[in-house]
Amino acid sequence: WVGQVEAPTAQNMYQGTYTGTTPCADCPGINTTLTLQENSYGNPTTYSLKLDYEERDTTSTEKGVWTVSTWKNKPLITLVPQDSTQITYYEVLSSNQIRQLDGDRNPIPESMPFTLTKE
């Protein structure tokens, strides 16, 4: 007997680690690492978001669950943290790039580089 092969889901397409340096109000930048884990059957997909502030001894890590939906005809990744109500949205730019959106799911101005690239 051969095991059934699951068709790729939207979550499986976007799983992986994305990195980039995002803007910081009072430091040179924030080294951002977002890891989207693949879900095991029947479990929610989880993520880890690490923010390492340059020239400061500050690092924070957020964990939670993530989903993929469609917003304005584009794939949208939604991060729901386990310890907060601050939901974060990322639009999918390409197979290896995502960009953070504001709280209303609108693009942040291009002058503020909130794009992360898949490793």
Rg calculated over all Cα atoms: 15 Å
Task: Give the amount of beta strand, in percent.
Answer: over 45%
Q: Taking all residues together, what is the mean pLDDT?
A: 88
Q: So how many helices?
A: 1
Give the structural class.
mainly beta
Oligomer: single chain
Question: Largest sheet, described in full?
Answer: 8 strands, antiparallel, barrel
Uncertain parts:
1-7
Would you give an account of this structure?
With 119 residues, the protein is mainly β. The chain has 1 helix and 8 strands. The protein has one helix spanning 10-14; strands spanning 16-22, 30-36, 46-53, 58-71, 74-81, 88-94, 97-101, 115-118. An 8-stranded antiparallel barrel has the order 1-2-3-4-5-6-7-8. A hairpin with a 7-residue loop joins strand 1 and strand 2. The model is unreliable at 1-7 (pLDDT under 50).
